[in-house]
Specification:
mainly alpha, about 0% strand
Length: about 210
């Protein structure tokens, strides 16, 4: 059964938010790889714009919630939940700014493997955020399942595996101890953002479980 036009319209309105989140993540990755802080300042600006857009949507949903009953209220509450998780994704990506800024300012080196792993999970999260934008625009049920059952769990597991690898490199003397808070902070941010992105995909399902 197809989703109702109301659901499609609500989800389509969030596509710009997903694009903004992708831009935030792109700027974080670029700052890390180029070791330049300018992108972090831009990231903060984009975050403010994304948060403002989400606030507008939330206000509209609050107003609509007061005017509808039954299924309309259920839809509004579900969309509010989607916005909440998108807000948390934005917060998680924003939390990458301090560790990256610290790493650049203090010249804290990552190993080649650590840099590659950071880029790998950044790319995995970027793909998921791109999928959310597509989901919002097309209501693609297959893509929702891919995010929930394949892509999301894969990135989440990678963040755990790479944290374990980092500890092993520290023991072997291949990584400096003061790189640990920065590297692990980035992995935590990616893992948390991925978890909330998966919740967005779950809530966007046509027959999402309660």
């Amino acid at each position: 059964m197809s989703a109702s036009p109301d659901i499609r319209e609500q989800l389509a309105g969030f596509a710009g938010i997903a694009a903004g989140l992708m831009e935030m993540l792109r700027l974080a990755k670029e700052a890390l790889n180029r070791q330049k802080t300018e992108g972090l300042d831009k990231l903060t600006q984009v975050q403010k714009a994304v948060v403002a857009e989400m606030s507008l949507h939330s206000g509209e949903l609050d107003k609509e919630l007061c005017e509808v009953r039954g299924d309309g209220q259920v839809l509004c509450l579900k969309m509010e939940s989607v916005l909440t998780h998108l807000q948390l994704v934005a917060r998680n990506i924003g939390e990458m700014v301090p560790p990256i800024r610290q790493q650049i300012a203090e010249g804290i080196p990552f190993s080649l493997k650590g840099t590659a792993q950071a880029n790998q999970v950044f790319d995995g999260l970027a793909e998921i955020l791109g999928d959310l934008e597509t989901i919002f625009r097309s209501d693609n049920e297959e893509l929702k399942q891919q995010v929930l059952k394949e892509k999301g769990p894969k990135v989440s597991q990678q963040t755990i595996d790479f944290a374990t690898d980092h500890e092993a490199r520290m023991i072997e003397g291949l990584c400096l101890p003061h790189a640990a808070p920065v590297f692990l902070g980035l992995l935590d941010a990616v893992r948390n953002a991925t978890r909330h992105a998966m919740e967005v995909a779950r809530l966007a399902q046509r027959h999402a479980p309660n």
